[in-house]
């Protein structure tokens, strides 16, 4: 007797539908379906999961008109994007700090000075641009 093949989610080619943005307040972020209201993701990107999440967790949003929905979606999407980019500059600052410390260590090693000798760093500070937070 032949065994039945198991379905695989990856083989079903489920993709985000743009109409879900206005209907269910969902947006695709990094290949995941994210609720704009509560920032939760659904396990599988299919309409029944998106609809179930929307109807069970956010029933108060069903009273909006089409124009109100569109404005609300744009506002929430902008907030989500701003929230996700909030952590990006901190990452750059940390990277710049690490680069600066390597540059100072290399400068001290080239001159053969002790790490406690701050005069060398103070002298070179005006010509090295990464100390200014660039």
UniProtKB/TrEMBL annotation:
Residues 17-74 form the SPIN-DOC-like zinc-finger domain. InterPro entries: SPIN-DOC_Znf-C2H2. It comes from the Eukaryota. This is SPIN-DOC-like zinc-finger domain-containing protein. It comes from Gasterosteus aculeatus aculeatus.
């Amino acid at each position: 007797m032949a065994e039945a093949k198991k379905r695989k989610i990856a083989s079903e080619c489920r993709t985000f539908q743009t109409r879900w943005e206005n209907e269910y307040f969902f947006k695709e972020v990094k290949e995941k379906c994210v609720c704009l209201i509560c920032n939760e993701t659904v396990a599988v990107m299919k309409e029944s999961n998106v609809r179930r999440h929307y109807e069970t967790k956010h029933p108060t949003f069903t009273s909006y008109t089409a124009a109100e929905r569109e404005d609300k979606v744009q506002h929430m999407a902008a907030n989500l994007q701003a929230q996700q980019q909030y952590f990006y500059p901190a990452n750059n600052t940390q990277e710049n700090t690490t680069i600066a410390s390597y540059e100072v260590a290399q400068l001290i090693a080239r001159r053969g000075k002790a790490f406690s000798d701050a005069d060398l760093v103070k002298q070179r500070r005006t010509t090295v641009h990464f100390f200014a937070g660039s």
